[in-house]
Amino acid sequence: MRAVCLLSGGLDSSTCLAWANKQGYETYALSFDYGQRHRVELDAARTIAKALGAAGHRVAAIDLRVFGNSALTDDIAVPKGRDEARMNAEIPVTYVPARNTIFLSFALAWAEVLEASDIVIGVNALDYSGYPDCRPEFINAFEAMANLATKAAVEGRMRVRIHTPLIQLSKADIVRLGVELGIPFGLTHSCYDPDAAGLPCGECDSCLLRAKGFREAGVEDR
Prior knowledge:
The protein is 38% helix and 11% strand. It is an alpha/beta fold and 222 residues long. The two termini are 33 Å apart.
């Protein structure tokens, strides 16, 4: 059985790829070059896909800078040094409009071509930055739509399932799971605003949430 796994090259998506492998899926990793300022994550994704033995890995080019309105795709400063209360006070400017809807749509298309009924995405509803497209309600709605929108599902040859193994885990729990699955943490990249050499800033929401997870799990982040 096959599964399409969304892979950014970060901690969460890498853990999901390893999780899918452990479940016995033949995994196909899908990454996106969407005009993100932290494009270095694509190098991490390629390395992780190879290290974890994905049967295939593709990078889809879709330039979301054409719409902008996000600190990840536009000339907007990435928030730095925020505590959890400030992170959760409102949807942050690092939210990319409709990103997971777009990503899952691409994953759905590839899954139908591969005759893979399973899609895995590393969304999380606990230690995250408040993105609306990381919630269970969104995932459930997309899965329902997917089974109305594809030829294979309508003809009864496939029922699409969206797997979210991390959705109710804290970041510390994700780190612990990653340890159990043998994730090479040093190959992953999480920072929204790396320097020219690709080194993490250590101050953006993603960096701070990652550091919190490793700290609470009692694991060194290599």
